[in-house]
Amino acid sequence: MTVAAAAALVISVAATIYTTELTRGYPNATVTKTTLPYEPHELIVGYRGTATNLVNEVDTKTRLHVTLSSHPETTPHEQLLRLPGQTTPIQAAKVIAKLRGVISAIPDYIAHIAGQFFPDDPGRAGKLHGWENLQWNFLGAAGVNAPPAWSNLQSDHRPGAKGVVIAVVDTGIAFRNWKNFKQSPDFRGTKFTDPCDLVVGSIKKGACTDPYALDREGHGTFVAGTIAEATNNNFGVTGLAYESTVMPVRVLDAEGNGDSSTIAAGIRYAVVHGAQVINLSIEFSPGTTAGQIPDVVAAITYAHNHGVTVVGAAGNDEGSSLDYPAALPDVISVGATTRDRCLALYSDIGKTLDLVAPGGGNDVDSVTGSRCFPNRNLPDIYQMTFPDASHPSSFGLPSGWFGTSMAAPNVTAAAAMVIASGVLGKHPTPTQILDRLEATAHPLGYGQPNNAYGYGLVNLGAATKKGGRLVPTKPYGLKGADVATVVR
Fold this sequence. Notes:
alpha/beta; globular; disordered N terminus; 11 helices
């Protein structure tokens, strides 16, 4: 690390914790409240003696079985201890600080690059910020550049798109406990409103007859997690618009299928009940025309005319045109990219594609203007859901999830974060939101827009930052399909 980089490090704000700085012989030592993040399984102990004696003393005098950390030592007379099991640094500090020879016992605090917010969620790694190892799709290198956007929204006093209502029209969401269903443990603290199950229930006099829009498949829970999973709760993984309010609308059954009339009813329900953004990680079969789904077309037009932004998945057929409903002009269409920032093998393309976002999986064979490396077993997308659809009460971070369904909720969250940021005023229109997302996207491929990437990879940090372009640069006499090609 360079001196300049080291100078840029500051301690980031995280969940409220309590730290102990108890010094034997100092009667005024107290437990102080702080908001600083620390390593969850380590403790720095000041000790007048050797490391071996310290470990022996702890083992003999307490019930803690500590070991010396493999990390480098800090300063003379300080030892970095690795804590057992579920023991927190706070719990250990209160005990160890009372031992003879102990000068101090404090957590091992975390620093991050200045000006960005990095949540403490541990992912699979079981350590602070472990989500970064798993959720490559949220970072800046190949993902949607979420950390600066999180910081921008905190500065705007709208952390995680607080207050924006997002409807997830899908297979339902594991948003609460009911009968054999359980709430996803990483939705504790996530806000939900006006749930409606239109597979089982219906709309009568404007009200939903079945509010138990619970997931039987896992897809809707995954999508909702990407959008708004609880973040900075020292558990699981992160969500993008983590303080937004989610509206669960179930229109797909336990096999992931649903008819156009139910989907259309779900879209209209979401609009009537106050959704500002609607996510449709749904695709009709290739070959379906707008004339065959007039109810869905009319519902999306209704949403657009009422100022609701609709985001749709481009499709997973390796096709040269988008699937409906993403193909409709009033839907922000989203294709999928990989960790290489290349078009994903399965993603549909076309001249009406608006944006791309991480969907995981492998690269397509080649794309003009891109660096693609097929057959490399690139990583999937990870979010908390149930690994086995037959057990919707057992949750994990399963592999095998990739697709434009995974890409679309990134753009849905981006739209909500743009609304919350105020960069477009208090009540931006769907067209203004799309323009902003296109104007601030990271260009990919040759020429913008192009039929592989549209205007590029959505960039949450740039989209939520004050200033910058509001409208994308239009191509000079060229249509998207003319400026890029894909060889499959």
